[in-house]
Amino acid sequence: MRTKLEMMGQLRSSFSELNISEGFEFDTEIVTNEIKEDCKSLLLSNEQLTTLMKDMDDAIRNGLRKDTNPSSIVKCYVTYVQDLPNGTERGKFLALDLGGTNFRVLLIELGENNYFHMESEIFKVPAHIQTGKGTELFDHIAKCLAEFVKKHNLDSKNALPLGFTFSFPLRQVGLTKGYLNSWTKGFNCSGVVDEDVVKLLKDAIKRRKGLNLRLTAVLNDATGTLMSCAHKTRYSKNCFVGLIIGTGCNACYVEKIENAELFDGDQSKPHVIVNTEWGAFGDDGKLDAIRTKYDREIDEDSLNPGQQRFEKMISGMYMGEIVRLAIVDLANQKKLFEGRLSEQMKTKGAFGTSYVSDIESDKANYRETLKVLNEMGINDPSLVDCANVRYICECVSRRSAHLVSAGLAVLLNKMDEKSVTIGVDGSVYRFHPYFHKLMVEKTKQLTKSDIKFDLMLSEDGSGRGAALVAAVAVRDELPLKTNGVAAK
Fold first, then answer.
1. Strands laid side by side in the 102-111 sheet
2. Bigger pLDDT: 459 or 208?
3. Whole-angstrom Cα distance, residue 203 to residue 107?
4. 205 confidence band (pLDDT: 50, 70, 90)
5. What CA–CA distance (Å, rounded) separates 414 from 255?
6. Active-site amino acid positions
7. Cα–Cα distances in Å, from 109 out to 95, 212, 235?
């Protein structure tokens, strides 16, 4: 009698013959042992994650200290944001959210009785600008800002407050001053690294005649997400972490002033938000024991080899490519598709991370898997091929979620707050069908047992948060002052 595996292996062209409406339920039993063996390097044990957590905790503590920060891989930049929204903010505020191939401009209005209104528009950053001159990038942003202001008939007589979310590693020296440490996520504009991005934007706005804006805050997307969720929960006092899992991956958290030795701002408030920039974790070799040959290939072939190694194992910019490299490798070993590959599957970047989410959304019959493979030029996969591809996707996304969970557990254990709301934004977290569940399960395993946490999806977090930081900055210019960001 033939085994189930043998029977499934004979069904190379059977999708056209099988009445899939009657259902073939997904079954990991038909994943081949060869594929499972080759994917073992993508599976992380709690022992490996615990070792990672110790190294990351050390890196974060080094980043917070004056004497060790210069050599620390995780920089822990202070954001100078010390206050959350408290409901007294009033007026119209603009926000600019730059963090990838698209950027957003938002207009937010805050009023009495929790009145909140938002309008936004998405603009594209053309590829030639992403890797061109820095002045061209900021001139393009200013042009789009001017179009938005004109479209919404905003008063140019009074300078409108503008919050600027800049989602790249940023060393801040004030609420309105920050220097780019390095480009990530495919950007490589000249003349911007080690420059004050706020000044570059201000200069571009000045070159745009008739554009009257007042830049009141610069922040990263994780900080914006934290602020957005604090506002969404009606000024929550326990929203202590902002987390991004999208094109990139980063986290910020609320730290005690005495621990943030590089902070030279208002010492009368007890806390300040720290932007970890943990995407660079492992750039010193601390992740080498768990990096695969696919991770090394992606890193070596990137615009920033040797940098952002933690992020490259997690984020949406790289997850699909990790899957593609694994598929190509295993097909070349004749463990997938009988060794046959399409030109598209051989093409760098062709397998988007959205495909990973699509494939793992399959409930039965591998409908989505078959659709994705057809789009990638693989027209006759067997059911076993589909099961194997799905398993590869699961291993890659599970590893991503577990790595994020380990980092998150480090922050939760370090703060040691007993109840924490974590604001989360980003396309991977938002669209992957199981990422939230994977994170909750693993973070609970790695966090102190008496710490309770909730993951809250942020709505337009980074953009909305930028406007809210601007609103809080304007609010604090008034005589009425508020308590610190994490006042008990």
1. 115-124, 102-111, 91-98, 160-166, 213-219
2. 208
3. 22
4. very high
5. 9
6. 185, 221
7. 11, 18, 17
